[in-house]
Write a structure and sequence with these properties.
Distance between the termini: 85 Å
Number of helices: 5
Strand order of the largest sheet: 4-1-7
Amino acid sequence: MIRRVTYILILLLLGSASVYGSASKAQIMIRENSVVAGDIVTLGDISEIRASTETQDLLSSISLGYAPRIGAVRTIPLRKIKLVIAARGLQSSEYSLSSPRVAYVRREGQQVPKELIRERVEDTLATAFKNNPIEVRITRLD
C-alpha cells in the first residue's frame, strides 16, 4: 500500500513538474503565410505566441524588418527569426519554436476599379476648373 501511494505521489510530482516546465517556456508558432497592415513586420504579425504577458509582449514586438510593398511577397527565413529573437536576449532554452523553413509575408491592400478612379479624377478636375473655359479630357489612366 505504501509503495502504491509513493508511486502515485511520484507520478503526480513528475506530472506537475512537466506542466510547470512547459508553462514557463514560451511557445512560438510561425505561420507559413501572413498578411500585415503596417510598414514593419513584427514577430506578433506572423505568429501565435503563448507565454507570460511580459514575455508575449516582448516577443510580439520584435521587428523583423520592413513589410513588402502592396502586391509583393517578402520571405523571412527561419534562421533570421531565430537570430532576431536571440538579439533581443532570449536564449533558445527559454522558448520552443515551430516554423516552416520560410515565412511568406504579404502586405494588406485594396484593389480599386479603374472606373472609380476615373470618376474621381474627372470630378476633381471638373470642380477645379469649373470657372475656366477649358475642356478637360482624360486620355489615359494607368
